[in-house]
Amino acid sequence: MSNENYHHENLKADLIRNGLKLLDEEGYENFSLRKVAKACSVSHTAPYRHFDSKDDLILAIAIEAHLKFNQRLEEAVNKHPKDNKSQLKEMGYAYVKFFVENPEYLRLFFLSDFANNLKKMNHETLLNGEQPFNTFYQAIERCQAEIQSGEGESVDPNAMALSCWGLVHGMAILIAKKDFSYDGDYLELVRKVLWGGTFLDL
């Protein structure tokens, strides 16, 4: 079996995996299908079997990242099927853990020169119910409804969403970029903040 035939069996997956690494290292302007092909040890024309352009490949990278991220959030929800507050806490922990373990996704989604382009892409996979923000916001709405029905208080779901997201996003960036110096287990510290602090005390 030739080297290229071997790679072709999983070429699309290889292009996405190596493309993410290359995009993270070189940025959008220096990213090219030719460079990704070289990283995959295939001819420079091989990527065009699956992708029309570098933007097409980057979109595929973003879609895969969104699906993986959303899966982590749904797993967090499923750990506490009858406890809405615990769902949000577990999702917050999963959020930080995902981006600390995959800082290249954090940079792609929020910190890269391509991040703004991703927000403008009207791709159905990025807009439908599998989008991570939808999973998060649905949990916010469930928690908000429970608080209002139980205590009669008026809770703005957008304020709750901003508070929850802002906290975990800030922790993810500080830890992933190593801006917060700590000798212990970062993720255990995150769990302590989410379960032992004032999180969700609205």
Notable traits:
202 residues; Tetracycline Repressor, domain 2; mainly alpha; Arc Repressor Mutant, subunit A
Offer a quick outline of the entry:
This protein has 202 residues and is an all-alpha fold. It has helices at 3-8, 11-30, 33-39, 54-78, 84-101, 103-111, 115-120, 124-127, 132-151, 157-176, 186-196.
Largest sheet: none
Give the helices and strands as they follow along the chain.
HHHHHHHHHHH
Helix content: over 70%
Q: How confident is the prediction overall: mean pLDDT? A: 84
CATH topology of the largest domain: Tetracycline Repressor, domain 2
Oligomerization: single chain
Q: Note poorly predicted spans.
A: none
DNA-binding region: 32-51
Keywords: DNA-binding, Transcription, Transcription regulation
Organism: Desulfosporosinus meridiei (strain ATCC BAA-275 / DSM 13257 / KCTC 12902 / NCIMB 13706 / S10)
GO molecular function, one term: DNA binding
Task: Describe what this molecule looks like in 3D.
The protein is mostly helical. The chain has two domains: 1-51, Arc Repressor Mutant, subunit A (Orthogonal Bundle), CATH 1.10.10; 62-196, Tetracycline Repressor, domain 2, CATH 1.10.357.10. It is built from eleven helices and no strands. The chain has helices at 3-8, 11-30, 33-39, 54-78, 84-101, 103-111, 115-120, 124-127, 132-151, 157-176, 186-196. α5 (84-101) runs parallel beside α10.
